[in-house]
Write a structure and sequence with these properties.
Structural class: alpha/beta
Distance between the termini: 42 Å
Oligomer: single chain
Largest sheet: 12 strands, parallel
Strand content: 25-35%
Number of helices: 2
């Protein structure tokens, strides 16, 4: 659902895909090839939300702010399932892990990786290429070239998803049994541990 609020109508590029069960409200700008998953709440009622090209905001994420604040997701930001971004700036090609919470006025530097369930306190400035974990957060190491390559590949999978959803996602009635000729889906991407052989 897309909602106007206080005269602000969301701007969504035609190549982006906002799932019908997501909610986008007010002063929101969504760029090219962005994927917004079901259950996501992108709430630009009190401030501006900018989601640049090739980002993804996955299922049940919340993006919001205190009044008068801009939330900015820079190009290729990857926001994992259930994460909360509140009044923060997420740098280019950053991964925010599942159920992480990024608080007000935080700046996550480009090409950083924020672990699942991480809590980043208000006003923190995370340098580029940081690996951030824990509650409260700690920077534990630098992101190396292999890690950012893995992250970028994962985001590229999501960059294809809006086009695939526009082409093939549609409501349907469920089948009552599994067809014998049901095809297996391709495994085109590995977890970090699979990639490392662990």
């Amino acid at each position: 659902m897309i909602y106007e609020f206080n005269g602000y109508i969301p701007v969504v590029h035609e190549s982006a895909f906002v799932h019908p069960q997501a909610t986008v409200t007010g002063n929101v700008i969504i760029g090219k090839n962005v994927y917004i998953g079901p259950g996501a709440a992108i709430r630009g009622d009190w401030g501006e939300i900018i989601i640049e090209d090739n980002c993804n905001v996955q299922e049940n994420c919340t993006i919001h702010m205190f009044p008068g604040t801009t939330v900015h997701l820079k190009e290729m930001a990857h926001i994992g399932h259930g994460a909360i971004i509140h009044g923060a700036t997420i740098g280019r090609n950053v991964l925010v892990g599942m159920n992480a919470v990024i608080m007000d006025r935080v700046e996550i530097g480009d090409e950083s990786i924020v672990g699942a369930l991480c809590f980043v306190r208000a006003d923190e400035k995370i340098p580029p290429r940081s690996v951030v974990v824990g509650n409260p957060h700690k920077i534990v190491k630098e992101v190396n070239d292999e890690m950012i390559s893995w992250k970028t590949e994962g985001t590229q999978v999501y960059m294809q998803l809006p086009q695939d959803c526009h082409a093939s996602l549609k409501p349907c009635e469920p089948l009552r049994k599994v067809p014998q000729d049901r095809q297996k889906q391709a495994a085109g991407y590995q977890t970090w541990n699979e990639r490392k052989g662990e």
